[in-house]
Design a protein that fits this description.
It contains 9 helices and 42 strands. A hairpin with a 3-residue loop joins β9 and β10 (about 125-130).
């Protein structure tokens, strides 16, 4: 899965995104590569494809229902009892804090088996006790969190799953935890309580946002001396968040469940030669799975960790065969990762993925283990089936297996509750939470299978637009695909064709959106409304006057955000995965997005005279004094065109047409010029297209035989029994027209884009 360039991850949410990071974020889905299947009925409406989803194709939504109420959590033996009360609100907020750290002077607050005289308050609506376990070099659950106070989740994590993944990671209280909130926090300490109040807004104005202007979200937490906790919700525009109490579960509270033994298999490396899988219940909430290998498991930091994998498969019913894994209801994966650039001191480490399992992995001696809550599909089961395997680096083929065996679930319960309906007599709850969220998504390969099985394999690209919101904190969408092609597979671009069958394509389909873009989001609006405030230079409103002046009708060109999104995501079909071999050094030019310091000036600009590639990089002016001025940055707003390197990877220009370029490394800010452009000190390294070929091989098919005509199926998606709104139809059709024009303009008319569903 590739993510749009809005908001960086590894260098603190979007300055450069690491390929390893992106692979890790989506590993739980990619590990399984569950084949897609049709999930709706498809018809053609004019130039658009209409997909009406089958009943139940979308997961349920659960929107916030506690507005104007207070929740009181009263300590009881082994947990808390909960009351849903009329709003109790302290209108005197106390002092606004500018940082996350809060010291308590009048008492120590009891929580998670300890007494605390300090905590941190996240602007995104949570309170954390103690420090999180963040390892350097990984922006998901490692590296600096997006919010330095409170808890943090991965950028792409749906709230429906992230709520469970927070269990047993750090002592925390989620009052209204919603990533990307911003605004003010207030703290007031009294003799017997501390009051924490938030006045925050949802993100606004950007391509990834759902609103052009600030929204009001006002909520409060009261921490009492005796351990009682109150949440109060005065005014909430947001409807999705995580709410709950997350004390740590004592390690000694572990009860064995069952031990599964491996089947006979050829000899394997001792650390992958799994002999047993021991299952146990921790604290009545967590399922712990511990692999026991024939020899010591490689410790974190060992170079051999990178790429190896251990997987646990869960089934709600008897699997088709003891070796079958294709129809598992859930998979927990332990994957070994190595940071691409270890200059910051990051080392190899293990990371866990899967529904309900936090990232943390414990490796000790011959054992490697993870623990998490039961995946949703298994929570009502009395008995499940479990299998496991291990694989070496560079291969997904297991080297050792533990066949599926029945496991009777006892002594384990689900900590997710429905807060508004809890009664005081229920509980006590040692840990509890509720995730409020929009619709969950099906397997992303289901989208392409639904279209291709109905209309045929005639589409290179498939973007989706809808009348409903999905469980994503950003309005944009990731993208992925099997890298199909008209003719032979494309090589020499740093990415390989794979998984055609999973996307139901005989060979043509190349790339598509992972989820539909909501019609009410900013990026599906023709232009910003008149009252939209001017944002930063990463917001389209910043460029409104400039773009209007060069437009024939005196208005900003329409659907600039939408074109940024579709062009950037579909551009991932070719870019940005390549490296360059310069002398004895192989230099990554990305990965996934061109490095910030890469000279990536656009060959055929879309709207402005000077543009950096829609895939990243910049336009850099050499000042010949060791400094460089950034004339256009690596952000994709407003929409820009393709660099010569992009066009080469697309098969549209020859090697002779690609001018030599350079990459700037070790960037250090050095002020701004008279026009406000940033200036940096940097080390410059020359790069040629032959250096890229030396690293990746030639781009094949070459420019004389490459595909020049592409077809995009613009898909509008509606729920079962629904009709598309006029706004959805109108905006999708307008985006379709702009996309065709964009592609022709930015390829210098060397290629064309059609959008023909017939």
């Amino acid at each position: 899965m590739i993510r749009s360039k809005a908001l960086p991850l590894e260098l603190s949410l979007f300055f450069v995104v690491s390929f390893q990071l992106l692979r890790a974020v989506t590993a739980s889905a990619q590990e399984r590569e569950e084949p897609g299947k049709p999930i709706g009925n498809v018809s053609v409406v004019g130039n658009l494809i209409l997909m009406e989803l089958d009943e139940g194709a979308l997961g349920r939504k659960n929107l916030f229902d506690l507005g104007g109420h207070s929740l009181r959590f009263t300590p009881a033996r082994d947990g808390y009892r909960v009351e849903n009360l009329p709003l109790e609100w302290d209108a005197e907020f106390g002092q606004r804090i500018t940082g996350p750290h809060v010291a308590v002077h009048n008492f120590s607050f009891p929580f998670s088996g300890k007494s605390w005289d300090a905590f941190t308050v996240g602007v995104t609506g949570s309170i954390r006790f103690g420090e999180p376990d963040h390892a350097p070099g990984f922006g998901f659950g490692g590296g600096p969190p997006r919010d330095q106070g409170g808890v943090s989740i991965g950028r792409f994590d749906p709230l429906s799953e992230a709520a469970g993944n927070l269990v047993n990671t750090v002592p925390a209280i989620c009052v209204f935890f919603k990533p990307r909130l911003s605004g003010d926090r207030y703290v007031k300490e009294l003799a017997d309580r501390v009051v924490v109040t938030w006045e925050v807004t949802e993100p606004y104005g950007n391509i990834q946002d759902f609103t052009w202007t600030k929204t009001t979200n006002r909520f409060q937490a009261v921490l009492h001396r005796d351990g009682a906790i109150e949440f109060s919700y005065d005014q909430l525009a947001a409807k999705d968040a995580i709410i709950g109490l997350y004390p740590l579960i004592p390690e000694e509270a572990e009860k064995p469940l069952r031990t599964l033994s491996a089947s006979k298999h050829p000899p394997a490396a001792a650390h992958l030669d799994i002999q047993k899988l021991k299952l146990s219940v921790v604290g009545g909430i967590l399922l712990k799975a511990a692999f026991e290998a024939a020899g010591p498991v490689l410790p974190a930091g060992d170079p051999g960790v990178a790429g190896i994998g251990y997987r646990i498969y869960f089934y709600s019913h008897t699997p088709e065969s003891t070796g079958s894994t294709a129809h598992a209801n859930a998979v927990w994966t332990i994957r070994g990762f190595a940071p691409r650039n270890r200059a910051n001191g990051a080392a190899t480490r293990y990371i866990a993925f899967g529904e309900g399992v936090p990232r943390a992995v414990e490796a000790n001696g011959n054992t490697i283990s993870v623990q998490g809550i039961l995946p949703a599909a298994l929570r009502s089961a009395k008995q499940i089936y479990v299998s496991a395997d291990a694989s070496a680096a560079g291969s997904e083929e297991p080297v050792a297996r533990i066949p599926a065996k029945p496991v009777t679930l006892s002594g384990i319960h689900n900590p997710e509750v429905h807060l508004s309906s809890l009664k005081p007599q229920e509980g006590p709850f040692s840990l509890l939470y509720e995730s409020f969220h929009y619709y969950a998504l099906p397997n992303p390969r289901d989208w392409s299978c639904t279209v291709i099985n109905s209309l045929g394999d005639k589409f290179d690209f498939l973007p989706y637009y809808s009348d409903f919101r999905v469980d994503n904190q950003e309005a944009g969408t990731p993208s992925n695909g099997p890298l199909g092609a008209v003719g032979g597979a494309v090589t020499g671009i740093g990415a390989k064709q794979s998984g055609l069958d999973s996307y139901c394509t005989p060979g043509r389909f190349q790339w598509g959106f992972v989820q539909p873009v909501y019609v009410g989001s900013n990026q599906m609006q023709e232009r910003p409304p008149a009252d939209a405030p001017m944002g930063t230079d990463h917001d389209i409103t910043f460029y409104q006057q400039q773009l209007a002046e060069i437009s024939g009708d005196g208005k900003m060109p329409p659907y600039m955000y939408a074109i940024s999104q579709i062009a950037h995501e579909m551009g991932h079909r070719w870019a940005a995965f390549v490296s360059a071999k310069v002398g004895d050094e192989t230099i990554p030019l990305g990965p996934v997005h061109w490095a910030r310091g890469l000279q990536a000036q656009v060959a055929f600009p879309y709207r402005r005279p000077t543009e950096a590639s829609i895939m990243g990089g910049g336009v850099w002016q050499d000042n010949f004094d060791g400094t460089y001025t950034q004339l256009d940055d690596d952000y994709y707003v407003p929409a820009t065109g393709w660099s010569y390197l992009d066009l080469y990877l697309m098969g549209l220009v020859s090697t002779e047409e690609v001018p030599d370029f350079f990459i700037l490394r070790n960037l250090v800010p050095a002020g701004k010029d008279a026009n406000g452009h940033p200036i940096f000190k940097a080390d410059r390294g020359k790069v040629t297209i032959q250096d890229v070929i030396a690293a990746e091989g030639p781009r094949l098919p070459g420019v004389d035989k490459s595909q020049r005509v592409f077809n995009t199926g613009i898909v509008i998606v509606v729920q079962h029994g629904e009709k598309p709104s006029p706004e959805l139809m109108e905006r999708a059709e307008a985006i379709r027209k702009q996309w065709i024009d964009y592609f022709s303009t930015t390829t210098g008319r060397r290629a064309s884009m059609t959008s023909n569903p017939h």
